[in-house]
Amino acid sequence: MSAAPKGVGAGRIAVVTGGAGAIGGAIVAALRADGHRVVVIDRNAEISADLGAETSTRRAAAEVLDRFSRCDVLVHAAAAFDTATLADLNAATWRHVQAVNVESALWLAQAFAPGMAERGFGRIVFVTSDTFWDPPAPMLLPYVASKGALVGIMRTLARALGSDGIAVTAVAPGLTDTPASRTVNTDVQFDAAVDRQALKRRLTPPRHHPPRPSSTRAGAVHGRYDAGSGDDSQTGARPNRWCLWHPDCKVTGPVQTPFRGAGHRPHVSAA
Q: Which DSSP string corresponds to 1-28?
């Protein structure tokens, strides 16, 4: 294996769930370009797992620690899109979406956080969704509820783990044109999303590593994290910038970033 490129992630192990998908794949590429040793957990990946099953998820976490001894960065990008309205919802559909989108993130964080705390450095990032603030369709009830649960987990863990040098954040992309999102959205819905956005084009994951962190929100875990105008009220602090990788940066509270429409207020990343 070739030597890792020099960058802010050199020597760090980053674990990405859903790394075989479009958004997850873009995150993987950005992390690798910054020097991280990226470990993908997915159905068909370096570490294969069914994130809808607790035993499989915990086994994947144990394999990461057994093979690499640590996890410095955890990005949960995996998601299930099973749809159902309130009238059609059944327990199997509900439980599968919550297991993949919510519970697997908890089991992985539970496995990796102790080591992060021991080393005094860790980054946990949950990919949520702007559908939590503006649900687009009744059939997305299980998905929207799962993303709301991740927001609550993020806020709780940010307070609980911040003193140990672990920053817990969430990134909420807008409707992104991916194979997965196309299973539950039509062209009409994509066009309607563009009409509501400040950026008047469809959002797509980058096909290559971006030249600057601010050039892609799918790569919000890349290098440095620019805080948006979302919920950063955990400690009363209002930081304009977040640096995900450098241990000397102070963790003052989480940043929840819904990248939506005119409410998006970009910031310049710290040098």
A: -PPPPSSTTTT-EEEEETTTSHHHHHHH
Position with higher pLDDT, 216 vs 151: 151
Q: Measuring CA to CA, which residue among 172, 149, 146, 170 is closest to residue 158?
A: 170
> Is 108 domain-assigned?
yes
Q: Is residue 144 a contact partner of residue 131, using CB atoms and an 8 Å limit?
A: yes
C-alpha atoms less than 13 angstroms from C-alpha of 146 in its C-beta half-sphere: 30
Give the CA dihedral 159, 34, 210, 158, nearest 10 degrees. Answer: 0
CATH number of the domain at 39, please: 3.40.50.720
Say yes or no to pLDDT of 20 above 80.
no
Q: What number of other Cβ atoms are within 10 A of residue 170's Cβ?
A: 28
How far is the C-alpha of 138 from the C-alpha of 122, rounded, in Å?
37
**Mean pLDDT value across the chain:** 74
What count of Cα atoms within 13 Å lies in the side-chain half-sphere of residue 96? 11
Q: What span, in angstroms and rounded, lies between the C-alpha atoms of 214 and 176?
A: 17
Distance, CA of 182 to CA of 250 (rounded, Å): 39
N-term to C-term CA, the chain: 31
Q: Is residue 165 part of a domain?
A: yes
Using the structure block, give the residue that is written with the tokens 């909420």. 172
Q: How large a percentage of the chain has pLDDT more than 70?
A: 61
Task: Please state the domain count of the chain.
Answer: 1
List the domain range (segments joined by +) for residue 190: 13-262
**pLDDT at position 137, please?**
86
Q: Which has more pLDDT, 187 or 264?
A: 187
In a domain, 269, yes or no: no
* Residue 69 belongs to a domain: yes
Q: State the sign of the Cα–Cα–Cα–Cα dihedral 66, 67, 69, 73.
A: negative
